[in-house]
Amino acid sequence: MSFLANIDRRVFYWILFIALMVPFLNPIGFPIKIAENTRDLYEGITGDSVEPGDVWIINFGYGVSAWPECHPGVTVCAKALLREGAHIILIGPHTDVELTYNHLLDTASADFDAATYGEDWVFLGYITGGESAIAQLASNMRSVYPTDHFGTPLDNIPLMQNVNTWHDVSGVLSSDTGDWGGYFLTMWQEAYGVPMAQIGIAMLGSTGIPRWLAGNYFGMSVGSRGGAELEMLIGEPGDAIIAMDSISVSHLLIVIAVIIANVGMLMERGRKS
Amino acid sequence: MPYPTATWDLIGLWTGWVLMLMIYSYPLYKENPVYRFAEHLYIAVYLAVSLTVNFSNVMRMCITPMMQGDITMIVPLIMGLMIYAMLIPEYRWVSRYPIALLVGAGFGLGIRGSIGPNIQDAIVSTITRPTDGGAMAWINFLYIAVGLICSVMYFLLTYEHSGAMQVPTRIGRLFIMVALGAYFGNTVLFRLTMLTGRAQFFLQVLKLIPM
Amino acid sequence: MSQMLKREVVYAITGIVTVLMFVEYFLFPESQAWAEMLRTWGIIIYNISLGLGAVRLTMAHSVSIQRRRENWQYSGVLLATLVVMLVTGLAGYFTTGLQTSNTIYNWLFNYVYTPLGATLYPITGFYIFSAAYRAFRARNVDAALMLIAGCFVILSNAPVGEAIWVGFATIGEWFRFTGQVPGMRTFALVGTLGMIAYGFRALLGKERGFYAGGGEE
User: Fold this and answer.
1) What is the tens place of the pLDDT at every residue in B113-160?
2) Domains of chain A (ranges, CATH numbers)
3) Is pTM beyond 0.90 here?
4) Per residue in A52-77, pLDDT tens?
5) Considering only alpha carbons, which residue of chain A is nearest residue C97?
6) Chain B within 8 Å of C27 (Cβ-Cβ)?
7) Which range of residues forms the domain containing residue B41?
8) Which end of chain C, C or N, has fewer beta carbons within 10 A?
9) What ipTM was estimated for this complex?
10) Rounded to a whole number, what is the distance in Å from the CA of A116 to chain C's nearest CA?
11) 3-state percent breakdown (helix, strand, coil) of chain A, nearest 5
């Protein structure tokens, strides 16, 4: 087993890179079980939970590197809200938020093409300033966003005419790689009771699941797995489901690597003793 | 999105593909000039995007309202520029004023907002007994309750973890290890999903799978 | 007087702003206008301050080119690209109000920024694989527990786990919905208590590390 310990790490990298590509060329199609937290999220944005005309905020708290993790879930949620007749306000704390917005228009093109900008959705654009910005957004949106991303004053946008504070918003969906969901949690959900859900990266699943259990989030989608589950729930397979086979293979490789390493360690220990 | 056909979009797509390989030449081969070039290129474009977006935001939030008559906006503009005093050693203290405002707002909002979800709601959820689910629900309830108490005791660093504290803190450490293990498991999903996206892009540009 | 301007006045500003944020929410909603004004100022200051990193970076790379340090050519690439994108972005902004209206900026944003941004961070995926093989060893009970929890969560996150054995998904789910909860709640709870303690120390002027030249005059 000692020769295994001396393998160049680049061999592992090549094995992984090739292994990730094979399932795209030869899909396997493992079944995907839907978790309770994801189901709660979906039920919280569909059916009786959402009335036509409700205003929801979707926070693009992720950049281009996290598109595979967060974007499928956000796509499904945006589609679901638009189909319920809700209105969406799109914001984001990353400087590349415009790219993510354009990507959403592409991945949910049918629903956005059937909707009208300024009436059914509005893109307010970039926000920064941490917790202060989100707190200020709750008390006076126009001080943070005098105009939308394209320079139109909010008073000239039909959707925003009666929307300026947390009072006017029915719910928040925050899709994060970091802290911005936490700011919405403290400044919106905790402070004013605005319903909130997280469509975060997998690591936020560890911190977010206890919050879902405590009732702070009405639902939670965990990483690309959550995105795949949401795609199953809405009945429209997308990027997340397509990627699940590749993710399965890579995860299996990780576990096999851990097992081999530890078996080797135990054998080495046995040999020495 | 369909495979692009316009010339500049096609050039852009392949440029992105090549740039991706330039970056991956580092882990898959070794550090080399090609990787260094791509890395510096990224820093430059990221910085430029960041500067232009923040500039337009300052124009939107501060300069334009000031030009339209809100003269109080001169104050944050001047305070923001005071931060740049950090670059001049003898006037670095001037930058403390805007930082003081940012730190004060951050602390005030952070403290007022964090107590509810992180302390109150967490404790209430932990001590709320299960209403359904049978024996397993009670086992989980006890697991979480005992785990929380022991884990918090582990972080009582002002007391020596000996005597009566020894067993609970040791148990608390084990609960923390389980949490860190689960966190690692989720981290693996995150990292590998991002890599999966790149593998998919690699094949899409080569038209081996649909875009 | 100058010492007071450099220290005590700074702590006073921190304290007043902190207290105002509390008072606005818990006690006197009438103070909301002041709190809103300060928060808006804070956002603008934050925006302006993000240029500081750019200034330092530009200075460092300019010196590198000037003194022909090792790999100065990359600094040249960086500065040249930065200038091109800045000029085109600002040109787009001043003509139409939108940076991306400039064709060159938009092309670089879509076809250089996006693939590079999407590629650099996922490199850590490679490292996690080699780390799983080289570093994650169950040398004692604590590490073994961590690895077991990690492996079950990994196998429950990927659909293949349930396909191999339904127990992987069941046990992994237990770790996700129960097993990790005490530890994660502890981190949040203890972190918040620490932040509160740190905040009060900052209000009392005992924490000066985040002020420029903190610890000195």
Assistant:
1) 899 999 999 999 999 999 887 899 999 999 999 999 999 999 988 888
2) 1-30+242-273 (no CATH), 33-237 (3.40.50)
3) yes
4) 999 999 999 999 999 999 999 999 99
5) A151
6) no
7) 1-69
8) N
9) 0.92
10) 21
11) 60, 15, 25
